[in-house]
Design brief:
Number of helices: 16
Oligomer: single chain
Shape: globular
Distance between the termini: 84 Å
Helix content: 25-40%
Largest sheet: 9 strands, mixed
Number of strands: 18
Amino acid sequence: MWNTARSVGIVLAILMCGTGVAAEGVAIYSSDNAPAAPSVDSLPLVEKVSQYGITWTFDAPARVGRFVNGDYYVVGPVTVKEIDPKPRVGAEVTDDELDAREKYMIERDRLKVTERIRHGSMLNPPANDQMAYDSGIKNYFVPGLISRPPYEMKPGDTLVSTISLKVGEKSQFVYHSSGMRAVHDNCPIKVAAVLTCVASPQPADAFRPAYCDRNQTIYLARNLRRNLLPKLQRVDGAADPVKFAEAFQKAWLNTGYFGFDQPMENMPHYGQWVGQAVGNAALLLCMDFAAEEKEPLLLNFVQVGIDYWGAVKSGHPGWEGWGGHGSGRKLPVVLAGYLLGDDEMASPTKAFPKVAFGEDQQTRYGKAWNGAYVVFAGHSGVLAATGQPPRPAWGPYEHLHPSQWDMVWTTKDGKEIEQSNYQSEAYRRANTSCCWVGQGLALRILGLEKQWNHDAFLDYVDRWMTQDDTPFRTVIGKEFGDKNLLDPTKSWNHQGHAGDAWVRAMWDKYRSLSKAPTDGWTKDHGEEAAPLGPSPDALKPGPRRAKLKARLDEAAKKAAAAENPAAPSPAEATRD
């Protein structure tokens, strides 16, 4: 349980928050035990408050409380005069603290000394990809947004504060660890925390309003319709919901993309891991664990959904499918809305039809070369906002036979585009489909097909889990010399792989609970993927195909030489 200071008068202490929530003694709020909002005078009066290593100090003692997920609110107006760790800007960030990314930018005159920052904060972060928490953030760092205390907060305001990773420091997170700044696409932020300013005290079951929501919509845990969650007998090997709740405990700060802005200790980094985490969490909530064991995960999961919904309502364009990126953002919104009885939240793409979610962008109906009528729409898929592939080289391709992949085609405006179809197929097999299984199964179990509002995704998951792709792997493997596809032991990139063995067990045991057939992917839905990709008669070999042919020819020569070694020369044959 959270250790919240209780006193009358001024508490000259820092309120500390743990990293997780124990199952024992968890309060489960309903209409029968709905807590009243406390009086202002009953709230602790404090000079400072801390969470996740971040301390906010007020210019005068202020009344503070906790939301149901443990995040703090302060009754305003109030001024935050100091933050620890102290935001450091400009020359306060020394040369030896710079990471490789920052040095690269400095060498090209794209980062000035005055624009360096560590441990940054943002008051009312916008619902877009612009931010100024750390100058090591790729793509989305905007120096003009740099700010420092004091922060004058009024009711409706949100202050997001961060701790930056040091160069060489390894992050620690329940879902992955050892991530370091400037390595791969890692975020340079270690952790983030959210302080919300409210006009009046909130009941103990109030969720924190979304950090992008300036209307400050507050949902209540008493309104969660927990009776809609089934209590299916758990399968062997299922994750511990109490431990798994830690992956959702901290705010999922995620208005950017590629993981560049996602604090390494707040949420899973890569989109595949995000998709896997939310799918697994949804399945755990459908199992027969004790209510006290599931409640922390339920509260944290719903809070994540509220945050993503707040971003969408505030104008965020969504999270595109880009290879393995973009998955996992829609399900928390749908499930949170469903359980809270908010129909608009439960079906975000009905309310905002142009918002992007990776699962929808990368699946669509159409005839595939292997006989299926639902396809993976490519590494970058098809945008809901435009109805077109944002990057044509990575758009729909499964309507083409593998012998026609990676060819060059000419668009209507005369532009030649070399396809990257084999790369799309690699992402289909290794980084997307497997992390969609838990999500698709949870949606089927809960009967949320209409709320999801994209049947192609659900039928695609059924295809992934039920279509025998052995003959098709053979074709692709031979066409591109991919030994993994030809190796029956490499199940991680074969259809039917579900990421975790227990998720596969859940599928085998409970997919039949849904009345929806599992063969929807075999039915012609009257849609075609081909118009959004190249037509077979418009293709011609290009550089990529030439390199592939050369590589396969060389491999064939080596294989032939190994099987038929050259006969020894006469001289060699007569040697002693």
